[in-house]
Amino acid sequence: HNAEAPSLEQAFHRMAQMEPTLDHDVSWFVLPSNWAKMVVALISFLCFANSYDGDFVFDDSEAIINNKDLRAETPLGDLWYHDFWGSKLSSNTSHKSYRPLTVLTFRMNYLFAGGFYPVGFHVINIILHCTISVLMVDVFSILLGGLQFSNKGRRLNLAPKSSLLAALLFAVHPVHTECVAGIVGRADLLCALFFLLSFLGYCKAFRENKEGYTFSVFWVLVSVILGAIAMLCKEQGITILGLNAVFDTLVINKINLLELIRKLLYKDKSLENAGLLRKGLLFRITLLMCGGASILYIRWRIMGTGPPAFTEVDNPASFADSLFVRAINYNYYYSLNAWLLLCPWWLCFDWSMGCIPLIKSVSDWRIIALAALWFCLIGLICQALCSEDSHKRRILTLGLGFLIIPFLPASNLFFRVGFVIAERVIYLPSIGYCILFTYGFSLLSKQAKKKKILAVAVLGILLINVLRCALRSSQWRSEEQLFRSALSVCPLNAKVHYNVGKNLADKGNQSAAIKYYREAVRLNPKYVHAMNNLGNILKERNELHEAEELLSLAVQIQPDFAAAWMNLGIVQNSLRRFEEAEQSYWTAIKHRKKYPDCYYNLGRLYADLNRHIDALNAWRNATVLKPEHSLAWNNMIILLDNTGNLAQAEAVGREALELIPNDHSLMFSLANVLGKSQKYKESEALFLKAIKANPNAASYHGNLAVLYHRWGNLDLAKKHYEVSLKLDPMAPGTKENYNLLRRKLEQLQKKGG
């Protein structure tokens, strides 16, 4: 029996090879399975390796740095009731993006690294993409070569050349850069990982025998669970259950869809012979449907019934009044997504805010893109349904299925999405593109006389894509490079100009930032965030009247914009219009209850008006809401000190230092109070600690000198007066005090003489 086993396996393999496969026509390399996977892993790593030491960029700030769900003090249970950005799902402002498992991996990154160090986050993303690309070798071998087994139960790879080519195309596709180099793309990577595992798990449910296939209910259920895990990483994951059903229908049951449709339409009694009820197909599809429905119901209950809150600038087509305009523009967006798969040269981190103007009439030349898309799709669908070649029908249907079905959640067909185009959502649909590309290559190879030239051309495409991935990855390493790279791709996108301006402002280049903020407002006259930031810069440059105009317009456009109300209050305070400023501050607090910075600025207003009790209450509110609000604590200490309430000032100072023990400005303020209370030793210790933390602060040395002067340590007083004057020759009062000390020292020397 053992001697006959190899010949039986070879015979089975020969029977399998009788079915046509792509590899017969494809002019490509043949590598052993493990070598093929190693090559794919290496090349996918080379594409994105230079992103490993990139910064946190764009959406990473909100999803990671500002997301409290990553911190150890947030209970793990909260992740299941918060959205991807850390907001409560029940909140009206929530985007309803429910991805708790992705957030959990971010939290693990944060805890293991001991803080927000981006290297660990980037490395995990690169590893995930390499792993997915390796899994693609197995997935494509099934999709392109079919699911067949040896007599020992081992799955046969009947398309080693085609599956390697398709996996390489996937691994090096530049449109994947956002998912890999952008840390927030972790959601798409994890979703894709469990998406593929669900598919492979479903394939594992089947075993081939003489009568056809037997199946394991256990593995079907495992596939459903893996699909649920994929959805908990990102919403697209649920679509794998539909694709598993398509695969079962076409590959396992070899059903001709056109024939099935005809029989359903004509109520043919031979419907059972079409395979619908054979081999447990109906039972498996019922399991998949029940599993999918249960997952969606549970998610809907957790998410709440309210739709996500998006604005017109996020997705202008979805807010168009005309159904015709909506339909035309949605289809135009689909054609642009298809173009990004075909020619991923023009890539942008954001495609909203005027980047793609709406098509409002059929005379717009861009209608040609829609016609081209549907011409190609209809042609492929006709071939997938009507071709007499069952092999061709299967590959084209699977290719179209993997291209279209994972894209459906982003299509605006079922619900409004918060973007126009997002490169990250093409990560899974690119599987279908790779299938269709590989099939097209096989057809060309079949017809071509010089197959090597065709193979070299495909190698050239792969090489260009590798270089494009490396270039795009380097652009994702920093916000400055990322935002500037978008200027040539989407010059009409107000958000691109806004982000370039914000990046410049953060680096202190206010003059250049103003230029980009003005352009953002010109492109989108209702862009309140650009108005707010521009108003802030103009306020700091003392251009108060223009700042007031911009901020007033911002709150007029968006009356609940709390930050703009607060900044308007600051400008009005500077213009000495105190009543209006107070009203603006309180309006800001009305729209954002927990607003410590606004309470701080309100306290400053009350202090200017000598309303000391109101000022102290406002600052106390700021510190209650934000215990580490150093400025509010400092102002309380200084106000109490200046009004002679030394005991209260000391108590507040000690309370503040308990909460913020390393804040040198609080040490300095409390040291001044203790000095006035003649607690010289403790005051000296705090002054010295503050100077150690900030040795170049002239006032710290000057006030320590005053303390020594009062205390009678005249030599030390002289030393610190001199250091203070060296750091700041114009320091108020220091020169006078120093001269007094010198006269006193001279008098003492004369007496001593």
UniProtKB/TrEMBL annotation:
GO biological process, one term: endoplasmic reticulum unfolded protein response
Topology in membrane: Multi-pass membrane protein
Listed GO CC annotations: endoplasmic reticulum; membrane
E.C. designation(s): 2.4.1.109
Gene that produces this protein: Tmtc4
GO MF annotations in UniProt: dolichyl-phosphate-mannose-protein mannosyltransferase activity
Protein's name according to its UniProt entry: dolichyl-phosphate-mannose--protein mannosyltransferase
Compartment(s) of residence: Endoplasmic reticulum; Membrane
TPR repeats: 494-527, 528-561, 596-629, 698-731
Limits of the DUF1736 domain: 306-378
Pathway participation: Protein modification; protein glycosylation
InterPro entries: O-mannosyl-transferase_TMTC, TMTC_DUF1736, TPR-like_helical_dom_sf, TPR_rpt
Keyword Protein biosynthesis annotated: no
Domain of life (superkingdom): Eukaryota
Transmembrane segments: 126-146, 181-200, 212-232, 238-261, 281-300, 367-386, 398-419, 425-444, 453-471
Keyword Secreted: no
